[in-house]
Amino acid sequence: MYIDFHDATKSVNANYIDLLERILQFAAKEERISKEVEMSVNFVDDKEIQALNRNYRQINEPTDVISFALQDHVAGEVHIVSEQNVPLALGDIVISVDRAHAQAEQYDHSFERELAFLTVHGFLHLLGYSHDDERSEEKMFARQKELLKEFNIER
């Protein structure tokens, strides 16, 4: 799996990027995702993620993570067929570094753990997991907890 990292904040160091690369590769293997996929992880501040949240979810406040799944099929959209031998684009994960720092402090765990949690959470959204209802939430949260535990990142 190819992962493109972008840090608009210039504050996420190489050790964190390496950790997130490894946990995403691990999660992809556990979820049986083809090696021929690509995605991006973007680090922004609260101002940027608030604008995205307002424009795409109509919620005018910052959030911790937003995922833009390119494989979601929405009624009324034209289905795009990709060329053969071209990697499948899963989508984009956007993480607020400001929220990650605040939540790490709030939940009394490391910034590293919070980044890993938000990254796995966003990745599962790209794969179609959701928390729109109680049943879906239980399934998604159990899976992200399991992946983090298997990767030795716990609270």
Count structural domains. Answer: 1
Tell me the number of helical segments per DSSP (H or I, 4 or more residues long). 5
Query: Mean pLDDT, rounded to whole units?
Result: 91
Number of strands: 4
Question: What is the top-level CATH class?
Answer: Alpha Beta
Q: Kindly provide the radius of gyration, computed on alpha-carbon positions and rounded to a whole number of angstroms.
A: 15 Å
- Strand arrangement across the biggest beta sheet: 1-2-4-3
What is the second-level CATH architecture? 3-Layer(aba) Sandwich
How helix-rich are the residues, as a percent range? 40-55%
Structural class: alpha/beta
Write the H/E string, N to C: EHEHEEHHH
Explain what this protein looks like in three dimensions:
With 155 residues, the protein is an alpha/beta fold. It has a single domain, classed as Collagenase (Catalytic Domain), CATH 3.40.390. It contains 5 helices and 4 strands, in the order E-H-E-H-E-E-H-H-H. The protein has helices at 14-30, 46-57, 97-106, 111-126, 134-150; strands spanning 2-7, 37-44, 65-69, 88-96. The chain has a 4-stranded mixed β-sheet. Helix 1 (14-30) links the parallel strand 1 and strand 2 (37-44). The longest helix has 17 residues, at 14-30. The protein is globular, with a radius of gyration of 15 Å. The two termini are 27 Å apart. Mean pLDDT is 91; it is low at 73-82.
